[in-house]
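Schema walkthrough. Field components (list of strings):
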Amino acid sequence: MVIYGVALLAFCTIVGLYVGDLLGILIGVEANVGGVGFAMLMVIFGSNWLMRRGGIAQPTVQGVAFWNAIYIPIVVAMAAQQNVAAALSGGLAAILAGLLAVLACAAVIPTIDRLSHKDDGLSHKERGVARRVELTP
Amino acid sequence: MTQTFLDVVQRNNLLAGFGIIGAVIWLSYLISNHFTRGRIHGSAIAIFIGLVLAWIGGVRTGGERGLADVPVFGGIALLGGAMLRDFAIIATSFGVDPGEMKKAGLSGTVSLLVGVVGSFVVGATVAWSFGYSDAVSMTTIGAGAATFIVGPVTGAAIGASSELIALSIAAGLVKSIVVMIGTPFIARFIGLNNPQTAMVYGGLMGTTSGVAGGLAATDPKLVPYGAMTATFYTGLGCLLGPSVLFLTVRALVGG
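Field assembly_structure (string):
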């Protein structure tokens, strides 16, 4: 049933966010620490476990697939409710702080990336190709 | 007649939201195919149009939620709000290969630390060069350059003025918008075409909305990997901002 997929996803989301809130309280910060990440781990390991144990019924997958597919429209709606006016009225200091932070971090990506990639000996281009092959069943 | 129609739209605002976003995406793919020959991804254009609409909505209403503050478009707030956004991000992780996650474990962790500290240093330096040279101001604006949640949380903890907190939120919003728009353009130069680099990217940028939008516009298959690390960033920032980072800045500039 389609609802099984949606319900499992909702269950993982709520449990993950709960763990994130608890972790935030535990280390004394007013934020959810990795809640979405914990929920994603539950979904990743849960779905892999179920698939190994004989697969997941197609309608259940559809319940998850719909939300997976509606992700980009949701991101567009998210963009449409950002406080863009406030960002632009923050003045040059705010704009430069945000912009330069992005550029500085983007510049170190290849260096940090090498920490994990150093052993596989593939170039970025080759890895891109390899990944695309993997994802096509 | 018009009033009746608007009433129906407002009563069913989530459905209206689906319709509006659907129309925006249809228009975006039309622009992508006909004017850029598919070179700029339709979803990148859609996100950009979304931001422009948010700007118009914010200027027209003076509110904080962009287009969603216009009553007729209220459904956008629910459709693009934190609840459905988190739900959909988590849905993208269905069927992801855990092996890819493990492979990027070390670089993903390093990227989180470098991301928070790097953004903070850049933000604090910009603040200093604009004359905000006391420790509280530099820390608050630096934390805002991490994300627009880290900024106010840190500022509140160290007693920053509301003007400073507003500035730090603005810095975080600019970052999130730059990441949303800029990711597809810088992807080629930083090798952002595989799950491991996406995890490093999420850890370095940290803004969940920025990374979620930016990766969606680059390659939707990368979204779960980037989102996974980004989700730990704000927590780490809120932990380091008012403590280690603030104390370091105070040691360096005094008071």
